[in-house]
# Entry
Amino acid sequence: ASAPREKIYVGAASNPGALLTGAAMATPPKSRPILPIPVWNQTEEICMMGAQNFRNLHRAQYTHRQHVQTARPCLENDFLEDDYEEKQLRAANMRKTRQNNQKETPLDLDRHRENVRLVERLCCVARESEKRQK
# Structure
């Protein structure tokens, strides 16, 4: 026999009188423990602060307030779409360039083989001249 399920009524804010049971039941959020603030991040009492520390605190609060006020309330989808299309075109161009650079023509392979033969020949000539000088 299973234990009887607890019944809970949802508050008036979402749906008055709605009944939830079992897994759908609203559970209170678990509170997280408050972590101690490290000593280097703690602010001293305002009445005990020096003038410079007081100015620094107010400057930090002011810049934070400015960042909050200038923050966008939502994303600008038009800008993001344009940026996305531009990045897609750039990626396609880079992909095409990379593929063109990776294609080796027979002329390039022949030139590479010829360069390898020349380097080997130069090394042989250098070894022979060293032997003659000894």
The CA atoms of residues 5 and 19 lie 12 Å apart. Residues 6-25 have pLDDT under 50 and may be disordered. The longest helix spans residues 106-133. The chain has three helices and two strands.
